User: Which sequence fits this backbone?
């Protein structure tokens, strides 16, 4: 595999991305369909905003390491903090993976995957939490996402974490651009990830590498396809 694609797949480069609005970066081929979808949504009164687009390996590794070292809480399926006390390293790894991707395997590395909110619903003191309630009936981002359910496929987008498949928690806010993301998922291999992680300062590296095949099956390949 060409080095550039290896780097794209694992978050080691951002050279495939461009700046979208709001300081977020997206894959250069996602810009056009995303802009078109944003414009269509605006006609309906929604202000589609990317609150997280491209994310680097380094950033994902910081998040991971902060969870392992306790600087950032590890949350359960109901967003309640989990205590690491009495958990094996393997159990800690699986708990983190419910909400945070293993560095080198995050779909956000690709620039094809985006967390989407409706900025028109933000008050001056609102903090976006990206929790299920915000996206359910009565939540601030429900209407936009209801519209997206009916319209996003026209622009190439789908929800890889729509249902609870026992891997990543349902993340209704997370959209993916199918034409590119499907190719990238097919190209991402365990071998490639091992190569990147071995050279990194990832916490729990040894235990992660020991269960990498299971991580692939349960968290990376186990998505809702369009
Ligand atoms: Zn996401």
Assistant:
């Amino acid at each position: 595999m060409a080095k550039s694609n290896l780097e794209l797949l694992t978050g080691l480069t951002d050279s495939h991305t461009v700046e979208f609005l709001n300081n977020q970066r997206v894959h250069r081929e996602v810009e056009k369909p995303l802009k078109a979808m944003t414009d269509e949504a605006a006609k309906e009164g929604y202000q589609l905003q990317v609150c997280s687009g491209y994310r680097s390996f380094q950033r994902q590794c910081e998040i991971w390491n902060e969870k392992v070292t306790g600087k950032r809480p590890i949350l359960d399926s109901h967003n309640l903090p989990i205590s690491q006390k009495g958990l094996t390293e393997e159990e800690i790894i699986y708990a983190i993976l419910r909400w945070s991707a293993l560095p080198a395997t995050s779909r956000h590395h690709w620039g094809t995957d985006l967390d989407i909110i409706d900025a028109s619903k933000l008050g001056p003191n609102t903090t976006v939490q990206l929790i299920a309630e915000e996206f359910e009936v009565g939540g601030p981002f429900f209407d936009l996402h209801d519209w997206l359910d009916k319209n996003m496929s026209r622009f190439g987008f789908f929800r890889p974490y729509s249902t609870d498949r026992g891997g990543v928690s349902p993340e209704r806010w997370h959209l993916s651009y199918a034409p590119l993301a499907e190719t990238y998922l097919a190209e991402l291999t365990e071998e490639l990830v091992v190569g990147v992680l071995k050279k990194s300062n990832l916490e729990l590296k040894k235990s992660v590498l020991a269960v990498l095949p299971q991580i692939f099956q349960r968290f990376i390949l186990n998505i809702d396809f369009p």
